[in-house]
Amino acid sequence: MLNLSRWKVLLVVLAVILGVLFALPNVIPAEARAKLPGFLPKQTLNLGLDLQGGSYLLLEVDTAALRRERLTNLVEDVRQNLRNEQIAFTDLGVADGGVTLRVTDPGQVEAAARALRNSVGTPLAGTTGGRDVNVAVAGDQRLRLTFAAEAMNAEASRAVEQSIEIIRRRVDELGTREPSITRQGADRVVVQAPGESDPERLKDVIGQTAKLTFQMVDDSVTPAEAAAGRVPPGSQLLPQDDPNEPFVVVKRRSVVTGEMLVHANAGFHPQNGTPIVEFRFNGQGARRFGDVTSANIGKRFAIVLDEKVISAPVINSAITGGSGYIEGNFTTETANDLALLLRAGALPAPLNVEEQRTVSAELGADAIKAGQVSTLVAFVAIVAFMVLAYGLLFGGISVVALLINGLLIIAAMSLTQATLTLPGIAGLILTLAVAVDANVLIYERMRDEIRAGRSVISAMDAGFSRAMSTIIDANLTTLLAALLMFQFGAGPVKGFAWTLSIGVITSVFTAVLITQVLLAVWFRAARPKTLPIA
Question: Is 0.70 topped by the overall pTM?
Answer without folding.
Answer: no
